[in-house]
């Protein structure tokens, strides 16, 4: 089990209590902190007889039980304390640790969340919490739930743990905050200096990242992990030869860092169009070093893009660590298991676009919504989006799932990405013949009528930016995209986030266009509204981001996608061709080489 459930009451004394008798409780807390369990328990027991509705003696007795590793007794004491002091963080800290001793991680996580909502600052519980959130695939919520506690405890190792968990969840901007906080707290330790370099790279501050690495190198402090990160800087600034020389010349001793560096080398080989060298780099990273995780996942998706699905599945399956895989094995997605279950819980992973794409694979699985319950465990914003979906999927929020998972047969759990095993042998398009998403017809009609009121001509929608750390390799300047739109058209801003300055500059280059940002639709939080907005638009122009997957799931009739070349070409689109093999409805316009928009824009211009 993760973490150490030992009690830690040294930070929380009953200072809120008053009166002579309270001194006895204070002595009991002090005895518990010193490890004098007998004295602490005896004093607390005597106090409980005189004041049975005071929660503190029960807390102390619970702490004593935790120290002796008696989870059941501890739970009973803390439950009694909860009856009389439900708002005390100590109560829920104790319940979380007792649940962990009883091998009940679901209850442990639930109690930990309550403790942090009440202001807990227990460092030991934070370590347990970060581990459990990772196991349950909820890394993205770590900072939201426990951010205040992390700041209050000010432990650089905890900040690092939170940062790396957020990176695993692809929450890069949130990870940067905790990497920088760790470095601020302990700027001279190797782990936090590495975290600072990672924060610079993830923030795309590549000039600063280069300078920091050079300073570490000059001081003889660069580590294998720093070398792997510096390779990213070299690659993203076009210094490919230097990056490849570095991976060949550096004497790596850290297998994981070597695997990461080879993963960067594989990206460079993809950018150069050398599939053989790409495969060699990946195989050396994954097979020789035995390193699972992101590099294994990247190799799997490379093979998917090559159309080698059966070969890619075993590597893609290694994207999770051991404890996470133990809870939801890849074999749960096998047809014999899916056919035997009365219900299946599909666990969300990756971003919104990936989830829509992978949900579309349900058409090729043995699952049958007519005889089985199919739950999609995801964020609440999917609930309205998938209302009436053609796959027969019911959305179950992660919070509700967590409350019931203890009663779920482990064989009923399937990671969404594990459905990729059904790609092998399926004719393109991979997505089912029907739209996955059924937008709200009333809202579609209302939006389309409103947009027609602005301009009676053709309605265009545009998205041009990606917030991913590598998004600058696939994003395009808005004014370049607007240059391809016919005169006098209405243009709807589909881009999430604030881009006011860029929009105003682009407007100045095309004063003949009517450019609208519809404040009634939030593309991040209101996914159902976003789907209705897309359905109300005639033609969508976008880079490869969530917008195009939403259009694919809608079977939008006129969506044009600018597809980057090299490693930034996602596996969904294959290596070549202008036909969308995944959804069967998107029009693809490919770069001839990485970051060269000439060919893709010329193709788009001809299509429009």
Automatic annotation (TrEMBL):
Keyword Repressor: no
Record's protein name: Tetratricopeptide repeat protein
Organism: Litorisediminicola beolgyonensis
Keywords, sorted A to Z: TPR repeat
TPR repeat start and end residues: 156-189
SUPFAM superfamilies (alphabetical): TPR-like, UDP-Glycosyltransferase/glycogen phosphorylase
Lineage: Bacteria, Pseudomonadati, Pseudomonadota, Alphaproteobacteria, Rhodobacterales
Origin: domain of life: Bacteria
InterPro entries the record matches: TPR-like_helical_dom_sf, TPR_rpt
